[in-house]
Write a structure and sequence with these properties.
By secondary structure, this protein is of the alpha+beta class. It has one domain: Deoxyribonuclease I, Chain A (4-Layer Sandwich), CATH 3.60.10. Helix content is about 25%, strand content about 20%. The chain contains 14 helices and 17 strands. The strands form three sheets. An eight-stranded mixed sheet has the order 1-16-17-2-3-5-4-7, with no helix packed on it. Strands 6, 8, 9, 10, 11, 12 and 15 form a seven-stranded mixed sheet that branches. The longest helix is centred in the middle third of the chain and has 17 residues. It is globular. The two termini are about 40 Å apart.
């Protein structure tokens, strides 16, 4: 399969050239949404691009899919120096085929560079040895210790942005900053030790001065004593940034929130927590603290990039209620990943809308209504909870937000017909996900919503698309989502 990963990274650019348009023109064919509050809405001095992506911890764990999933995720992010191109038979013989040959000889950018991303929240990204591009600094923070930790790797472009020095000085949560590749290297047999070296956030009770914290306590049970020993869970961060070449200030909120009551988690130690109070008491309190700092911070804009674990009402496609469509999706996925999903219990609804107690495999063989539904929380509700006006009148209305997109998860798939714009191929079939958990919201500027992996899947050759799905759609893998703001 030499050259497959390169093809997938080149696909949007190659097809854009073949259609006689610029890459930027192709990107604008993705869904866009402009939500404006009031007569005017301040835009950033320079456009800001942000991404939310949770590849999920099984992608990085040796016992599961590390050898296949992890390399592709990291290559999609940072690119490859190996030029290669795999001819797509659907587009062969076109008059601009020479352009594809020219593109095949160029280095691959990866999404960080292709979309010039300012801020990236990577959920459950547990490879501490990944070498990020030189223009990115990062925070690594996790809550629960051990394999499969609930962590985030938060990247920001250090040529554009700097963390406010006063926030670094007052922070006590101690996230790992700029872990260098090769540091603390260990063999795969010592994978647990390597993950332990990622800094564990010590704070659970929300402390307004701290950048990072944990949203709640989980239901961890000591495997030796069988006694419940709750541990901090569901990491988040609230970081104050200043643009390097101007006075622009942005407060960036990142995180992986707890599942709300009646939600469904793939973790057997997850404890449900009402989302609103977490947003208010943890993130909202930290935002208010920063805005009360003075020195222009009261005018700072707010950018939220998170896996909210809440769905959006009236968004779900009926295919996720159809056992036949679910099984067709399984047919395209890695058999090991499918076996893991089919062994999960309580994920399929019965005729009364309640989860059946059977495994997924058993439940799909009896009358059912497909995947369970997730609790809803609108963008307006999310913003209401993090926006805590005070005596300084630091209110920041919701400005814009990404379109509802099915980003979660690979353990809840169904086969979906996906439109391919501007070609003679009207649709392609591959697994989609039901829940709009991953979202980006801002208090400023209008934005476009981009789905980079969806674009690759739509444009790829059929054989490469199948390989991509088998490689990435494992565990509770999420689709990445990008917001181009301003």
């Amino acid at each position: 399969m030499r050259g497959l990963f390169a093809l997938l990274l080149l696909a949007p650019s190659v097809q854009a050239v073949r259609m006689g348009v610029e890459v930027s023109d192709l990107e604008t064919t993705s869904s866009a949404h402009d939500s404006i509050v009031g007569a005017t809405l301040s835009a950033p001095s320079v456009p800001i691009n942000a991404m939310q992506w949770s590849p999920h911890w099984k992608c990085f764990t040796k016992a599961f899919f590390k050898d296949t999933c992890q390399p592709l995720v990291e290559e999609l992010l940072s690119g490859s120096t190996q030029p290669a191109f795999h001819t797509d038979d659907e587009y062969s013989g076109r008059e601009d085929a020479e352009d594809a040959d020219e593109l095949a000889s160029t280095p691959l950018k990866g999404w960080l560079r292709q979309y010039t991303l300012d801020f990236v929240n990577l959920g459950m990204f547990t490879d501490t040895k990944w070498e990020r591009p030189a223009n990115y600094d990062s925070f690594d923070a996790k809550c629960m210790s051990g394999l499969g930790p609930d962590n985030v790797k938060f990247l920001y472009d250090n040529t554009k942005w700097a963390v406010a020095p006063w926030q670094l000085d007052s922070d006590r949560s101690q996230p790992e900053i700029n872990r260098e590749v090769g540091q603390d290297r260990v063999e795969d047999a010592d994978e647990k030790l390597e993950l332990e070296r990622m800094q564990t956030v010590k704070v659970h009770n929300p402390v307004k001065e701290d950048m990072f914290g944990c949203s709640n306590m989980n239901g961890y049970i000591n495997p030796v004593t069988k006694v419940k020993e709750p541990k901090p869970d569901r990491v988040y961060g609230v970081v104050a940034f200043e643009r390097i070449d101007s006075e622009e200030k942005v407060i960036v909120v990142v995180g992986h929130l707890p599942h709300p009551p009646f939600g469904s988690s793939s973790s057997n130690v997850s404890v449900a927590e009402a989302t609103g109070p977490v947003l208010r008491d943890h993130m909202g309190a930290k935002i208010a603290h920063i805005k009360n700092k003075g020195g222009g911070w009261e005018n700072a804009q707010v950018l939220l990039i998170a896996d909210l674990n809440n769905d959006i009402e009236d968004f779900r496609d009926p295919v996720f209620d159809n056992a036949e469509k679910i099984n067709k999706a399984f047919d395209m996925m890695d058999p090991k990943a499918v076996a893991g999903v089919k062994g999960m219990k309580g994920q399929i609804r019965g005729a009364d809308e309640n989860p059946l107690p059977h495994t997924v495999g058993e439940a799909l063989a009896v009358p059912n209504l497909g995947w369970t539904k997730a609790p809803f929380m609108s963008n307006d509700e999310v913003w209401h909870y993090i926006n805590l006006p005070d005596s300084l009148n630091t209110d920041f209305p919701l400005g814009s937000f990404t379109e509802p997109m099915g980003t979660c998860c690979a353990d809840k798939p169904a086969i979906v017909d996906h439109q391919v714009p501007s070609t003679n191929v009207h649709t392609v079939q591959y697994p989609g996900f039901p829940y709009a958990f991953d979202r980006i919201m801002t208090s400023f500027g209008s934005l476009e919503t981009l789905m980079p992996l969806e674009e690759l899947l739509k444009w790829s050759h059929a054989d490469d698309r199948k390989t991509l799905i088998k490689t990435l759609f494992v565990g509770a893998f999420h689709m990445p989502i990008i917001a181009k703001i301003g």
